[in-house]
Design brief:
heterodimer; A: alpha+beta; 4-stranded mixed β-sheet; 13% strand; B: alpha+beta; 4-stranded antiparallel β-sheet; 3-stranded mixed β-sheet; globular
């Protein structure tokens, strides 16, 4: 897509719906209708058949023009992952029903994959869906569900054929989170906050028209979701010296320290963070230029390690003050915030190497998919799911 | 802080240089030949040097008016990365990179016109003689002195870690003149110059200790113009960025070797690369190699921006040095017993990696420089 055409479309949108006099929801609706929501989607579904990198350009122009792109954060799981799933697997009717209110944030989305018994091995999940006429009846428990307490729709993977091998017996649905039998409870984490939920399904009825792709194709759809998730987590776009390394440098300077050992540790992490940041930029450029390479696959792993090490050092730099926890541990729902203060960040970043694929799983993926190393022998691969040992 | 944005996607010309270099190096100086040279007295093959000159490599980054190809640091980096992959021995880094950069950055136009064509043609091998102390990389103040003697100069002192000094024709010597620091072009065969080749950890890159005892120099043997300390800082930054590219190539070769071995070596009935203990090691190598590439490619692309280079060069030097040493070491571990043998190539890379990480400043030293540039 030419720069001019993008510029013209954005200018039109901004002229017809001036951000200063238009509500966000109305603006985002108009943005969707113009095909500037997911530029790579087909026309009529929030896109114009452009490329993903065109969207970056569009968003920059929108921000420059005073428009908000906050919906991408407010409805992150829908806009960054759900839309990709619908684009790849849904019927046109389903896309028409869900994409627009997703983009406007009128309907918030959540993702229901992990279960108490299915973490890294998410394909081992046990939540059952049983066909009953034109509906499916869902029973089971999901966990680590962000936004479930405010979500209208949930992307859920269920077990529909326990006698098939585990990857084959799953089916993917969009479930109404306001339906009867859905029970959402906060899951308090080590910071004292509940960013996540546990979600219980007790005879929840889901119409068959909410099924995504074929019965038994759930794993394929789930993989689309997970790929979009890792893109969203790995693609950190902080400026140089931003994020937690910036916080660490600020603490170093504000506390007036000069210990040479701590200074080298700080500089070491600064260098590693900058290397990871440059790698993300290089990966984006190479992807835009159509040159495939391994540089795009290391970000999630790199940032998980770095965030943990950097925030741990920041607490060290604070010395005795690092033993304090200013926000307290009153169990609560988090407010939206940028960076956490250091001792809380130290705790929160422990999850970075677990959420969205543990670092161990990410290393497996790099080893097997990028380097072509052989997989571990799998004892459960061809067994009927019902016969796989679990616990 | 302003982010300096550059383009990292390789151009067609860079790809062509890479392909040509890889082919030539594999054909002419594969690892078997490297081993032969490594065991020879001077580790240098004049025929190969001539071929490199004919290919335009020795003058790659020298201006066309001085007999070079007029290409830039990015293209030079591509060549160095390929040389790093195969541990190409000889004075390329010493002469075509470090000494050439030094002449370009420090010498007056007349001296450049006199010296550069002969370097580009491979007729003169040059090396920078700047370090004097066994530890620490501060190059100033220099203990080596150049006092005025008649119309010229008289040089006294001793330099160490003169890269490939044993085959150099021209030594670029940093010396205190009593009125500031100067850089002198010294004929290595002149009276009073004693070149002593050291036995080095890395046999594929040699070093010499060079003594100067009352060496008589002409007036125009003093090459420098302008602010020498600033120029020296700049030269060492540029050379660090170039060396980082060579380190990237070596680290990549170590990783490739380890991954190939992990796929073909069977224990307990399956390839060792199927075990997470080995697979994760290899995946971590990939991450370090990719990070190293990013810093080296960035530094090579900001050579003309001195503020950015002050951060980017030591960043690349510290990241690439540590990555190469780590990957070379892990590669030996993945190879197990065979990796510890003389017969296997893994140790050649470990030796190159460790020595390279100290030649222009240890990772700690480089991070210190980076911190000063960042105000940390």
């Amino acid at each position: 897509m030419s720069e001019d055409r993008i510029q013209n479309l954005v200018s039109e949108l901004l002229a017809e719906h001036p951000p200063e006099t238009t509500s966000n929801v109305e603006f985002w609706g108009a943005q969707y209708d113009k095909g500037l929501a997911w530029a790579w989607h087909p026309e009529g579904f929030g896109g114009l058949g452009m490329s993903r990198s065109d969207q970056t350009r569009i968003d920059q122009l929108l921000v420059d023009g005073g428009a908000s792109t906050e919906n991408r954060y407010l409805n992150l799981l829908g806009i960054a992952m759900g839309a990709g799933v619908l684009d790849a697997h849904a019927t046109d009717e389903q896309k028409r029903r869900w994409l627009r209110p997703m983009f406007t944030t009128e309907e918030i989305w959540c993702q229901l994959f992990s279960e108490p018994g299915a973490g890294s091995d998410v394909a081992g999940l046990a939540t059952r869906a049983v066909k009953d006429g034109d509906e499916w009846v869902v029973n089971g428990q999901k966990v680590w569900t962000t936004l479930a307490h405010i979500a209208k729709w949930g992307m859920i993977v269920t077990r529909t054929d326990p006698d098939a091998p585990k990857h084959q017996g799953m089916t993917y649905f969009i479930v109404d989170m306001e339906a009867s039998g859905v029970d959402v409870r906060p899951l308090y984490q080590i910071t004292g906050e509940a960013e996540f939920n546990e979600v219980f399904f007790n005879d929840v009825r889901v119409p068959d028209e909410n099924r995504i792709d074929a019965v038994g194709a759930g794993w394929r759809v789930a993989l689309t979701t997970l790929m979009n998730e890792r893109v969203a987590i790995g693609g950190g776009s902080n400026p140089r010296g931003g994020g937690y390394i910036g916080q660490a440098v600020d603490v170093w300077k504000e506390t007036g320290q000069d210990d040479p050992v701590l200074r080298d540790e700080l500089l070491h992490l600064w260098a590693e963070a900058e290397a990871a940041r440059l790698t993300a930029i290089r990966a984006n450029q190479m992807a835009s230029a159509g040159i495939p390479g391994p540089e795009g696959s290391t970000g999630k792993l790199a940032w998980a390690n770095l965030n943990k090490e950097i925030t741990a050092l920041t607490v060290d730099l604070l010395g005795l003050d690092g033993t304090l926890y200013p926000e307290g541990y009153e169990l609560s729902r988090p407010e939206r915030s940028g960076l956490h203060e250091p001792s809380k960040a130290f705790l929160r970043t422990r999850a970075n190497s677990i959420e969205g694929g543990t670092s161990e799983i990410m290393l497996n993926i790099l080893g097997e998919r990028v380097l072509g190393l052989p997989g571990e022998p799998r004892v459960d691969k061809d067994l009927p799911w019902a016969e796989v040992p679990r616990g | 802080m302003v982010d300096v944005q550059v383009s990292y996607a390789p151009t067609d010309e860079e790809e062509l240089i890479r392909d040509t270099a890889r082919q030539f190096l594999q054909d002419r100086i594969g690892l078997e030949r490297v081993r032969e040279l490594m065991m020879s007295d001077d580790g240098f093959e004049p025929g190969l040097w001539k071929e490199m000159a004919d290919l335009g490599w020795l003058g790659l980054a020298i201006a066309e008016e001085h007999g070079g190809s007029g290409l830039g640091p990015v293209e030079l980096g591509v060549l160095l990365e390929e040389m790093g992959r195969l541990l190409t021995p000889g004075p390329f880094f010493a002469s075509a990179v470090l000494a050439t950069m030094a002449i370009q950055q420090i010498a007056d136009p007349e001296s450049q016109k006199r010296l550069l064509p002969s370097l580009a043609a491979g007729e003169t091998i040059a090396s920078l003689a700047v370090y004097e102390k066994p530890r620490g990389w501060e190059v100033l103040p220099a203990a080596t002195t150049a006092e005025t003697a008649g119309d010229g100069w008289r040089l006294n002192g001793r330099k160490r870690a003169v890269l490939d000094g044993h085959v150099a024709d021209l030594l670029l010597v940093v010396a205190d003149t009593g009125d500031g620091v100067g850089v002198f072009g010294v004929d290595a065969s002149a009276d009073g110059v004693a070149v002593s080749q050291e036995t080095t950890l890395d046999s594929t890159r040699r070093q010499a200790t060079v003594s100067f005892s009352g060496v008589e120099l002409n007036k125009d043997d003093r090459l420098d113009t302008g602010d020498v300390p600033t120029a020296l800082t700049r030269i060492l930054r540029m050379a660090s960025a170039a060396l980082a590219a060579e380190q990237v190539g070596g680290a990549q070769a170590c990783m490739d070797m380890a991954v190939d071995y992990a796929k073909s070596r069977y224990q307990f009935g399956r390839p060792i690369g199927s075990y997470q203990a080995i697979k994760h090691r290899c995946a971590n190598m990939l991450m370090k190699v990719e990070h190293a590439k990013s810093t080296a490619y960035h530094a090579l692309r900001v050579m003309d921006d001195s503020d950015e280079l002050a951060i980017a060069a030591p960043l690349a030097a510290s990241v690439c040095s540590e990555a190469y040493v780590w990957v070379a070491g892990e590669s030996i571990q993945v190879h197990g017993g065979i990796g510890f043998t003389w017969e296997h190539d893994a140790h050649l890379y470990l030796k190159r990696a460790k020595a390279s990480s100290l030649l222009l400043g240890s990772p700690w030293h480089q991070r210190d420089l980076m911190g000063l540039a960042l105000g940390i």
